Amino acid sequence: MKHWVQAARLRTLPLSLSGIVMGSFLAAGQNKFDALIFLLAIGTTIGFQVLSNFANDYGDGVKGTDNEHRVGPARALQSGAISPQQMLKGIYTTIVLTLILAIALIFVSFGRENLGYSVLFFVLGILSIAAAVKYTMGKNPYGYSGLGDVFVFLFFGLLSVVGSLFLYVQQWNSFAFLPASSIGFLSAAVLNLNNMRDSDSDKTSNKNTLVVKIGIRAAKKHHYLLLLFSLVCALLFVQLKYQSPFQYLFLIAFFPIGKHFFTVLKNKEVKDLDPELKKLALSTFLFAFLFGLGMLF
Questions:
Q1: Backbone dihedral region for residue 137 (phi beyond 0: left; psi -120 to 50: alpha; all else: beta)
Q2: Entry pTM
């Protein structure tokens, strides 16, 4: 059980839950919050994230990307704690459990009356599962072609925030794309940070992430822009939907993000960026919470 918990990489959950927290707060600001929808959305998102972590462990493990040169913590397949066959069973089991949660979430949100919405979100659920699995698994994993950043922005940012908000209010809100983009940019920054840390081993394993393609110097500039764009989108939303100075509460989260910015700026060895992954992920969750809290006052 200890090895499965380690393979699930629970430390990645705050980042994946940030979009759900943001979307739920936006719904609460419209007096549309529903506790059951929230709990099912949290459960479904945890399922997607654990599935992604299992699939990444398996995909990088069988391809040999996870080897003795990897900087981060040892993966389950890499260490031999879990066999490839066992991990595949874990992946299939997680897919089934996540689908059950997703179907329950869709039914609670839309019932029998909104079949079109139910079908749409079921398809989005299937696409989310496919995105989680195909990042490193299969013959042409998109994570090995430099497309991981785009998918993280779309699924962790736009779909997570705007999609979860829709589950509550059942109508599209174009303004929600701004805070959704903030979460997406910060999530992409976490992935970029991870790929900078692993750039040397990724390069030798033919894992052509965006960092490998553009180099560390350009990747750091890309990182600064992601952090800046997340701040700009949040500020723009507040300016367009201003009601109270409490809406600027989220700026507190940008103190640790700003500190992180200068840490990356001064960095000389990318392997030393490993501790920053946890800090930026937790800062993203703090941003989502404070941004949403400020909307309620």
A1: beta
A2: 0.92
